[in-house]
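Quick bug: BTB/POZ domain-containing protein At5g48800 isoform X2 output formatted oddly.
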Amino acid sequence: MTEDYSKNNLGSRAEEYLDIVACKNLEMCVEVLKQCENLLPLADELKIVTRCIDAIASKACAEQIASSFSRLEYSSSGRLHMNRQAKCEGDWWIEDLSVLRIDLYQRVITAMKCRGVRPESIAASLVNYAQKELTKKSSSWNQSSQPKVDVVSGSNGHEKVVVETIVSLMPVEKLVVPITFLFGLLRSAVMLDCTVACRLDLERRIGSQLDIATLDDLLIPFFRNAGDTLFDVDTVHRILVNFFQQEDSDEDMDDVSVFESGSPTSPSQTALFKVAKLVDNYLAEIAPDANLKLNKFIAIAESLPAHARTVHDGLYRSIDVYLKAHQALSDPDRRRLCKLIDFQKLSQEAGSHAAQNERLPLQSIVQVLYFEQLRLRNALFCSYHDDDHKPTHQSWRINSGALSAAMSPRDNYASLRRENRELKLELTRMRMRLNDLEKDHVCMKKNMEKSNSGGFMSNFSKKIGKLNIFGHSSSRESCSPSKRSQVTDSKLTERT
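Here's what came back:
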């Protein structure tokens, strides 16, 4: 079929067709490449596949550049910028590439990345190809219209190759691939038993943007043993480790900028608080699982640094759910679990609930009551600005480890119960006292607004006398300075 046998033979005509017709149009290149799937490796030896792949990559890159130029516009200040709200028309080839076989598709995407096609376009093509190739297409989109992939358990090796190939082709740029799609690929990789490198790559990518994930994303089912946990806790723990390793590296690199900004809501801190709330919600969701081991629950809870939780209400709620679902837990394990909670960081509502929670160990209840009393006393102290008349007695300290070693366990338990009752009584008295003082405080404010300066002092002295906080209740001490001076002058006159 060459020119050695006759002019205008089939070989030259095929070359002419490829140069003039096929390689000049992206759709025709894809069609020729699709036909070459059944002619491998002969089509590859004849360089037909390579020429089509190079032509597709070049055309896609050229059309993307032309589309970018069409989106350029001048701002009001006269500067040239790109209008990001305008629709990008240079990525129509994404749908055409989804008909290729996975090996040829991989070669096309690799050539596009070498030619400089935008990472966003590469990611969009990968998402579209995964939706077409992986099974169970009806569940490929969730309610929030985010791309998601789930495969059924009866899939063959084709889906496994597709998942591993797509993961290997993903751009390295952050926030380019939707995180919901990454979680869907991770579920598929776990279910299909993909390579360890594939799963670790997905976990690393998810960990880098975990702050935008949702609770539904983290609920990865466990597919291996029927008697194990309902959710894959180990995978979530590795994702958390990846996130906090990235946070540590970012802090090491940006220490100067973080301290110079002086802002308490820097992006890293905001992401940390979001992940802390996500973890507490995740713990509350997996806590009712009867097969969830205590060590795994504690490992997830301890993965957060101490400064990540400003309030421990979510952690307390998840631990309470775990204690309710695992009533056979021993006392040492209960104490070990409750040590995760900083009772000083509980809100007033959570503290009131914890003070009456019989599932908590007795030592934890004592700590809750102690901090509740401190909170009430601080509220009392803040109601008055006169530091000279504040009560000077010190609050007692509760320390279960400070009990006498000579006491028997029964006496130790009885002593703790007595302290518990005393603290409850003291807490009730302090609350009643606080309510009374708040009422008096409101009355004082009303009188201050109605009265003039002279009347204000007299009403203020009357209110202070009624409150009787400082113990000055005798009429002798409550007389005015002018009367005292008159009595003193009369006595001096009589003596003279």
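Actually, after a second look the formatting is fine. The first strand starts at residue 72 and ends at 74. Closing.
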